[in-house]
Amino acid sequence: MNVKRNSIQVVLFDAVGTLLQPYPQVIDVYHRVGQHFGSRLPVHVIEQRFRQAFQRHYVAAGLNTSETMERLRWRSVVAEVFSDIEDVEGGLFTMLWEHFAMAKHWRVFDDVVAALRVVQRHHLQVGIASNFDMRLKPIASELLPMIQSDHVFCSSSLGFNKPHQDFFRTIEEELSLNPEQILLVGDDGKNDLCGATKAGWHALLVDRHRTHVEANVLHSLEELDTWFDERSE
Question: What is the pTM of this model?
Answer without folding.
Answer: 0.94
